[in-house]
Specification:
Number of strands: 4
Distance between the termini: 13 Å
Strand content: 5-15%
Order of helices and strands: HHHEEHHHHEEHHHHHHHHHHH
Strand order of the largest sheet: 1-2
Radius of gyration: 22 Å
Helix content: 55-70%
Number of helices: 18
Shape: globular
Largest sheet: 2 strands, antiparallel
Length: about 425
């Protein structure tokens, strides 16, 4: 499918343009996605309650809202002050943070609206052809990320760069790692991990003529190089894990998949230890964190211990940094694990409901794409790339949390919505026993 033929003047135009602009102009992209959801609600008369996965997310939305209301009356009044450096004014200043009884309600914006993205984006991802278009738009929308990143890294193109009175901001921080228009290198690396499988699938597309092959090679190498320059361990791990999942044949795919996960986990574990004092095994005292406050293992251990003290309601959104600072005098913005972060904020029941559903969709779609003997799946690199992209994104959120960046969270639910469509397509194939491409 040529990019010039992608755009048609219907509601899909807004969704596709939103994907294209997601990395470089997220606020405009958000407006376009809201338009597509409104149109989809108006045109699609199907009841979202009919689908079991939708019902689980809706139940989660009700539960998380109730807990947020309870937090208004129960969140403890805590305040911290931290001396830090103001990069904008180049002066040292005191940063102050305190708990808010309404932080949990504000935090709902990271979940409930995105549930509806999952429900209604399926209308724009309901075929292999549509998902293929979206993958190409993801890659095309990465061009500003690459240009800004290489400009920052090699040519000292620093910002922040603003457009439309601040509606579009490219951060371009003067740091030694490639981050480009993102806030830091880990967010840039996460985005590049999302599009890396797509770039490989485009390169492997059989219809490409020599010129187009050359362009896809340039894009693929650029994404690879930019990922390496981020110096993000998550990004490097994603680069490593993509290839065995995406390129293996049917007979060896499951074995290579298991080996890849083991090796990636080992590499990330060793890199994490080596960067935190070159210890062979972490020595952590449950009651004393002062000697290891920057370690992920320490952060996760502290969060887990706190969760057991209040497992049902959690402590409220945006409260973890304050609790951790009061215990260790070190500021950490999150728990470095999305499941633990959600559990800390809203309790274990909400976390189980949401992530058990996510893992279920991920597993069922893996079974349909990778373990099915149907040729349309076994030889389709684009469908494999879609699953691979989501899996790497999900896995990265288990050792760090970039989810709260709008671009990453929307991508997360776009990909999950596409996986749901793949599952439904397979059911139709089983019923009809026929398929036309």
């Amino acid at each position: 499918m040529e990019l010039k033929n992608i755009y048609k003047f219907n509601e899909k135009y807004f969704f596709r343009t939103g994907v294209l602009l997601l990395a470089s102009a997220p606020f405009i992209s958000l407006i376009l996605f809201l338009i597509t959801i409104c149109i989809s609600i108006y045109k699609n008369k199907a009841d979202i309650f009919l689908d079991k996965d939708n019902r689980i997310f809706l139940i989660s939305a009700v539960g998380i809202t109730i807990i947020s209301i309870i937090h208004i009356f129960t969140i403890a009044n805590l305040t911290i002050e931290k001396v830090g450096w103001d990069n904008i004014n180049n002066v040292e200043k005191i940063f102050k943070a305190e708990t808010s009884p309404f932080s949990s309600l504000i935090g709902l914006s990271n979940w409930i609206p995105l549930f509806f993205c999952f429900f209604y984006f399926q209308n724009y991802l309901d075929s292999m052809k549509e998902r293929k278009i979206i993958m190409k738009l993801f890659v095309a929308g990465t061009f500003p990320v690459l240009i800004s990143g290489f400009g920052q890294y090699w040519f000292n193109l620093h910002g922040p760069l603003t457009l439309l009175n601040g509606l579009i901001i490219w951060f371009q921080k003067p740091i030694p790692h490639l981050s480009g228009l993102f806030n830091n290198q880990n967010y840039a690396g996460c985005w590049l991990n999302i599009v890396w499988p797509f770039s490989i699938a485009i390169f492997l597309e059989k219809k490409h003529i020599f010129f187009k092959k050359g362009a896809s090679i340039i894009f693929m190498i650029s994404i690879l190089l930019a990922s390496l320059l981020t110096s993000s361990r998550n990004a490097w791990g994603g680069l490593f894990l993509t290839l065995p999942i995406l390129l293996s044949n049917y007979s060896s795919r499951l074995l290579l998949f298991i080996i890849a996960i083991f090796l990636l986990s080992l590499i990330l574990f060793l890199l994490n230890l080596f960067s935190e004092g070159f210890n062979i095994l972490p020595q952590i005292n449950m009651e004393e964190y002062s000697n290891s406050v920057d370690r992920r293992s320490t952060i996760i251990l502290f969060a887990t211990k706190m969760i057991f003290k209040n497992p049902i309601l959690g402590y409220g959104a945006a409260t973890f940094p304050i609790y951790y600072f009061l215990k260790t005098a070190a500021y950490k913005g999150h728990t470095h694990n999305l499941i633990i972060d959600l559990t800390f904020n809203y309790g274990i029941i909400i976390s189980i409901l949401i992530f058990s559903n996510i893992f279920k969709i991920c597993f069922e779609s893996f079974n349909k794409i990778f373990l099915s003997k149907l040729e349309i799946y076994s030889n389709n690199y684009f469908e494999r790339a879609w699953w691979t992209s989501f899996f790497i994104l999900l896995l990265s959120q288990m050792v760090d949390v970039q989810y709260y960046d709008l671009r990453i969270s929307i991508s997360f639910w776009i990909l999950l919505s596409g996986l749901k469509c793949i599952i439904k397509e397979k059911i139709n194939l089983s019923n009809n026993m026929t398929y036309t491409n």
